[in-house]
Write a structure and sequence with these properties.
By secondary structure, the chain is of the alpha/beta class. It folds into 2 domains: about 160 residues, Spore Coat Polysaccharide Biosynthesis Protein SpsA, Chain A, CATH 3.90.550.10; about 80 residues, no CATH class. It is built from 7 helices and 13 strands. The strands form 3 sheets. The protein has a 7-stranded mixed sheet with strand order 3-2-1-4-9-6-12. A 4-stranded mixed sheet has the order 5-13-7-8. Helix 5 packs parallel to helix 7. The longest helix is centred in the C-terminal third of the chain and has 29 residues. It starts with a strand and ends in a 13-residue tail after the last helix. About 30% of the residues are buried.
Length: about 260
């Protein structure tokens, strides 16, 4: 069986990191890349691994690729500090490994725990993530947000879940909303996207309808409604900030309307 290295990046994750690392206790090696934790994160990490590296923060993609580079093994299982490998997923990966990995990477469904329940519908599920991969055939790519692993071959699909504890309450979501939407707007501008006044209304509405109605978010009760609203709010802020950035790029001068000749 090819050995597996688990990689994880951290910064002030004392609330999450112990459970994340415990769920990785079965892998052959754990790599931690920290960007300056000032809490007990590193003390907790030392209970699980001695392969802890410091690196100034340069973005999610750079940090995660650096962690992959530090691994001794080619097969990588990447986890975030607020995620856990479920027992079912562990069993599935170990069984697959015994038979031999046949793909260059594997997509894993991710289930989020929010408002006291697992979200199983809407935009948050199944939220497939390519997290198990052969680093000889794949690497992290992306912008300031929405980073993902891209492989040069077909990806398989697993059924066991990554358990995600991203927001413990609504207040925590609001705290992250500011930085996340700013980074997303900057990525949109870099790609040449623009935001009209109509998009500030249409995009959030479309996000809500997709998550709550088309993807059956209503089956998750109040939590499902809240998730759909949160998605709409996030879309509004991203496009409102993009609209503001575009105005600044043009000097803040609105486009001139053609004057009718008399």
């Amino acid at each position: 069986m090819p050995p597996i290295s688990a990689t994880i990046i951290t910064c002030n994750e004392e609330r999450n990191i112990a459970e994340a690392l415990e769920s990785l206790s079965w892998v052959d090696e754990i790599i931690v890349v920290d960007s300056g934790s000032e809490d007990a994160t590193l003390d907790i990490c030392r209970r699980f691994t001695d392969k802890i590296y410091y690196r100034d923060w340069t973005g999610y993609v750079d940090q995660k690729n650096y962690a992959v580079e530090k691994a001794c093994n080619d097969w990588i299982l990447s986890l975030d500090a607020d995620e856990r490998v479920s027992p079912k997923l562990q069993d599935e990966i170990e069984a697959l490994n015994r038979k031999g990995f046949r793909e260059s990477g594997y997509r894993i469904p991710r289930a989020t725990f929010f408002m006291g329940r697992w979200i199983k519908h809407g935009d948050w599920y199944p939220d497939y993530q390519l997290r198990l991969f052969d680093r000889r055939h794949g690497k992290w790519q992306g912008g300031r947000v929405h980073e993902s692993v891209q492989t040069d071959g077909a990806a398989g699909m697993l059924r066991g879940e990554i358990q995600h504890f991203t927001y413990r309450n609504f207040s925590e979501y609001l705290k992250r909303l500011e930085s996340y939407t700013t980074l997303a707007a900057l990525d949109y501008r870099r790609k040449g996207r623009r935001a009209s006044s109509w998009m500030l209304f249409g995009k959030p509405l479309a996000v809500f309808i997709r998550a709550y109605l088309l993807k059956c978010g209503f089956l998750d009760g109040t939590a499902g409604f809240t998730v759909a609203v949160m998605g709409a709010v996030s879309a509004f802020f991203k496009y409102a900030k993009l609209h503001e950035l575009c105005r600044k790029d043009s000097g803040g001068i609105p486009p001139q309307k053609n004057k009718r000749r008399i």
